[in-house]
Amino acid sequence: MTFARILGTGGYLPDRVVTNEDLARMVETSDEWIVSRTGIRERRIAAAGQTTCDLAEQAARAALAAAGCTAQDIDLIIVATTTPDRIFPSTACLLQDRLGNHGAPAFDVQAVCTGFIYALATAEKFIRSGSARKALVVGAETMSRIVDWTDRATCVLFGDGAGAVIVGTDSEPGIMSSHLHADGAYKDLLTVAGGVSEHPEILREGTAHVLMRGNEVFRMAVTTLDNIVEESLQANGLRREEVRWLVPHQANTRIIAATAKRLGMSMDQVVVTVDRHGNTSGASIPLAFDVAVRDGRIQRGDIVLMEGFGGGFTWGSILLRY
Ligand code: COA
To answer: What residues does 175 pair with on adjacent strands?
Structure first.
């Protein structure tokens, strides 16, 4: 039997740091308000002209180096993004060209903040079925391009970045299970209205911005993440205390703390980057994972629960032994 295992990780953040104080000079807000409601202190913002694929390329190269392989070894490329460089080709195809890989299937996954979970779950199924042997899975975003910088309710929340993993084969699991869900009935609670086909005028006017009913999103996120934690543990017959690390989507420390409490985990078993990265949507989980692998917290053999929630609504988890 073939299983999927993460062989290496990479991450990349743009150079420009935007602090809460910087934002307080742009909109009516304060460091105190942002930190107390969200836990965010600063975020990185891409330079003018720096695209999602630029960030993805850096993260991908770091992951390839960590896994000790080259772009030519890769036979599947998946990019989770909600802020693609172009309408088409996919950012995965643009990335493939940058890396000099030819012929591997390459496609984007759009599940907003749950995108990386969807992408990694997809890669796992390709590997387990024997359709791929080495997959590059990236979460990359330039959320700053779809944020209304005059709206204090949303502009303080987001940041830019990219994270990546290389997934390979193993005779034992690695990825133990994945759990994916969506409910489109909640499409309007967290959305960017305006696209190619519906309200193209919004796209033309350059006002395609994140719209969010924050309170309702918050409540749904907490309940849904509670449920997915239970679902992941039950599917594997695991006790809570067997999970060594929680790597959650990084939207808000209050949501993260609620999930950790449900798992009976102390916050020092939770990888938190939202204070420095903000919400980087599909990039947030692989970025946080990479940070904790590189600083030595996550060790080979540790059981890790990744979980995410985002627009759609979409939500999901991956339980793995690193
Ligand atoms: N600075 C200062 N005040 C702000 C503000 C800001 N940046 N943003 C909003 N406010 C104000 C509001 O205008 C409102 O003022 P009012 O009472 O005079 O009308 C007040 O603060 C409370 O707003 P509210 O939206 O109820 O705050 P909240 O406690 O729900 O916190 C969020 C807002 C966005 C932090 C919170 O709802 C949240 O985290 N939601 C989930 C977000 C999320 O995770 N999204 C991504 C999921 S992938």
So the answer is: 320
